[in-house]
Amino acid sequence: MIYILIFLPMVSFSLIVMLLGNFFERAGMDKSKARIPIVNLWYLFPITERSPLWGIFYFIPYLNLILIIWLITEFLKAFDRRDILSQVLGIFLGYIYLPILNYTSKITYRQSSAAEKSTVREWADALIFAVVAATIIRTFIMEAYTIPTGSMEKTLLVGDFLFVSKFHYGPRVPMTPLSFPLTHNTLPLTGTNSYVEWIKLPYYRLPRLEDIKRYDIVVFNWPQQDNRPVDKRDNYIKRCVGLPGDTILVVQGILYVNGKRAYEPEYMQYQYFVQTDGTPFSTQLLEEYDITDAMRVASNKGLYLMNLTRANYERIKSLPFVKSVEPKVSPKGQIEPQRYYFPPDIKKYPYNVDYYGPVTVPFKGQVIELNTHNLPLYYRLITLYEQNSLEVKDDKIFINGEQTATYTVKMNYYWMMGDNRHNSEDSRFWGFVPEDHIVGKAWIIWLSLDKGKSLLHKVRWNRIFNIIQGAPLSPESAN
Predict the structure, then answer these.
(1) pLDDT tens, 34-71?
(2) Residue 120 has pLDDT above 70, yes or no
């Protein structure tokens, strides 16, 4: 995939340039240079009075597409085709328009009267181009993202570097447009805000390739970060286990969606108590099985708490010094100290990580019957996400100053959970994710580094350029 993104634009554009011999001749160059595949692209830069150093951008996915568009417009300008029609035809119908110009039009090359640009000026122009192009790509096409925590282990690993697609679910127009280029919400080194809120735009999403599917791996803005604008909140990555209208229920740590046991990815992890005969687990054994979450319980010499995949559960259970492997499950109704769940009313909703729900995910246009019992479920939705005022007086609910017993939802919402189920702060802790918080779809792992390994063994070569699989192939397992 990544090779296609790099070389297909280069090869296809090179084929066009092979048909532009008359252009080359008018520019004072040997027209045979246009006939050399790939190499001919480098000869375009002198024609447009740019340094061939710009050619490095051909090897950067997506950036090369913008470079080609820019190069076409500059190439046409060099031959006095500056009108809007010529520029539009060159960009969108270049395969046809440029060869037609080459063979049927009188071509006049515009000699530059300006002094030759210095190397510094060339690099400055290239840097400006790169920043502008990268900003466009980052906003509307794709963005690089790093896995910082273990909430998606072992599906995604700490140290994985991802490309997150913006166009799958539709690029979101920036709601906070005044921001320092190529930063998210803070500036490097200083840690201060990288944006100002002088201009705020309403939520709008460009056309999408597809809807979010159940079990897609999605990047979104953290809903709990109320001190920042929506598009400047921290980025989180989880699996979307609940679509608008779905009912979510967790029983004994097992997730059910719409009454059916949810799809469980191959590398999903649960937490287990592992009792040995006193023999300790060696570091080598844990590394061999790639078990990264394991600790000894202080009160029992042979007792360990481990996060295990299905495969590792079977391996650990079969070891001769292991006496038992039992899932760690919090009892129903047990309130875990210093852990806060959604909704924040433990008397009405005594949920924990292993017994949660049922909760139904709201959908756009849904009319919710409101009362003082279910109001904690929808309070943030009504007030913070959909920007209404809400008051309760004498058990009566007032929205925007008017007494009401219903509320009509304005957006779709989603339910996100990590694959490392006992080491993930997700929708069980902060509830629904509004559609305006969705950033994009986790798409490709382009690099993976193991921070715990030495320099020569740091790269996880087997993960590079892997497509991230979200929803299962079997429709039955997707509910």
Answers:
(1) 888 877 888 888 888 777 777 777 777 666 777 788 88
(2) no
What value, to the nearest 5°, has the Cα angle with vertex 307 and ends 306 and 309? 125
All residues at 6 or more sequence positions from 232 whose CB lies less than 8 Å from its CB, including other chains: 176, 179, 184, 185, 193, 195, 221
Can you list the positions of beta strands (E) in 76-230? 142-146, 160-165, 217-221
In degrees, rounded to 5, the angle at the alpha carbon of residue 57 between the alpha carbons of residues 51 and 60 is: 170
C-alpha 272/C-alpha 284 separation (Å) is 20
The helix (H) or strand (E) run that includes residue 392 is strand 390-393
Residue type, 368: I
* Amino acid identity for residue 288 in this structure: E
Top-confidence residue, 159 or 69: 159
What 3-state DSSP class applies to 168? Answer: coil
* Three-state SS sequence of 281-305: CCHHHHHHCCCCCEEECCCCCCEEE
CA distance 414 to 245: 9
pLDDT of residue 429: 93
Residue 381 — φ and ψ, nearest 5°?
-55, -50
Q: Is the peptide bond before 154 cis (omega within 30 degrees of 0)?
A: yes
User: Would you give the end-to-end CA distance of the chain in angstroms?
Assistant: 30
Helices and strands in the chain: count of H runs, count of E runs? 12, 21
Amino acid found at 218: V
DSSP lists the bridge partners of residue 466 as: 445
pLDDT score recorded for residue 113: 42
342 close to 429: Cβ distance less than 8 angstroms: yes
Q: Which tokens in the block code for residue 441?
A: 């779809």
Q: Please tell me the predicted confidence (pLDDT) of residue 84.
A: 79
User: For 350, which DSSP code?
Assistant: -
Backbone angles phi, psi at 457, to 5 degrees: -115, 15
- Which pLDDT band, with edges at 50, 70 and 90, does 338 fall under? low
Kindly give, in sequence order, each residue whose CB lies less than 8 Å from that of residue 304, ignoring residues fewer than 6 positions away: 273, 274, 275, 276, 281, 294, 295, 296, 297
Q: How far is CA 279 from CA 239, 286, 303, in A?
A: 37, 14, 10
Quick check: 388 pLDDT over 70? yes
DSSP 8-state code for residue 114: S
CB atoms within 10 A of CB 433: 26
Instruction: Please report the pLDDT score of residue 5 as a whole number.
Output: 55
Separation CA 464–CA 445 (nearest Å): 6
